[in-house]
Amino acid sequence: xxxxxxxxxxISGVGKCSLTVSVPIISHFGVTTDVLPTAVLSTxxxxxxxxxxxDLTDDMLKMAEHWKKxxxxxxxxxxxxxxxxxxxxxxxxxxxxFKTEKTTLLIDPVMADFGQLYSHFSSDFPNKLKxxxxxxxxxxxxxxxxxxxxxxxxxxxxxxxxIKTILDKLNTQLNVPLLFLTGVTNGKQLGTVTYENGKTDxxxxxxxxxxYHGSGDVFSxxxxxxxxxDFSPKEAVQLAVDFTVNSIKRTRDAxxxxxxxxxxxxxxxxxxxxxxxx
Length: 278
Ligand code: PXL
What we know:
Layout: E1 4-14, H1 18-27, E2 32-43, E3 53-55, H2 57-70, E4 76-79, H3 86-98, E5 104-107, E6 112-113, E7 116-117, H4 125-134, E8 138-139, H5 143-150, H6 160-174, E9 178-185, E10 189-196, E11 199-206, H7 215-228, H8 233-254, H9 268-276
Parallel strand pairs: 1-2, 1-4, 4-5, 5-8, 8-9
Antiparallel strand pairs: 2-3, 6-7, 9-10, 10-11
Helix pairs in contact: 1-7, 2-3, 3-4, 5-6, 7-8
This protein binds 3-hydroxy-5-(hydroxymethyl)-2-methylisonicotinaldehyde.
């Protein structure tokens, strides 16, 4: 039977990220993508001003209750950008409503990058997000988010000792079985560290200068699709790193305004080919 994922994330009308990235990417794995929008914005909040923001907190539980009545079941729940701190408790309720032993919960604790919280969030948001992160089977923080979740000093360069400290803290404080720490860099290379059963595994690629908005969402979406297609964590992370880096290279070469997101669409056919091999 076709797998089904519930995507809890925002719709940013312009500036590819969140649902406008996750739906096409995960669909290319042959997975049904159902969406629970947390907010509708004219653009994402990274580098744009005067954006509109429609908070959908009041609709979320009602939508989920309708699906429950319809008997909908999900193989995965993937939660990204939340529109308000109140939504954390609502998502926890929705997870309790739908999570069975065959449902994987992927939490991408989207709230910060490059050492700073995104503009919409207050400084107590990271602490409030912890109980939801504790429920996760898979957590995909970037370095900044991992530091905020573990009260660790943020650094721009990361040696293996620093990474181990963060991973150990995440492991003991949140107790998530599978962690993917993104945006790990030694200045020359950029990559992801996987942490499972106390073991770390690095996947690196060339470091590309610049801030590419939406790349975390692109990465987590590929990971989500690949894990649903029964790729191993190691295979899934390699696919996600390759897809994200290829999309970043296309965006760099096209010299577009990086706020508008990654040029990932030309890579989708290759992704579908890889997914079909499983
Ligand atoms: O890509 C992360 C993200 C998602 N959604 C919204 C954002 C951001 C990052 O800035 O503003 C609305």
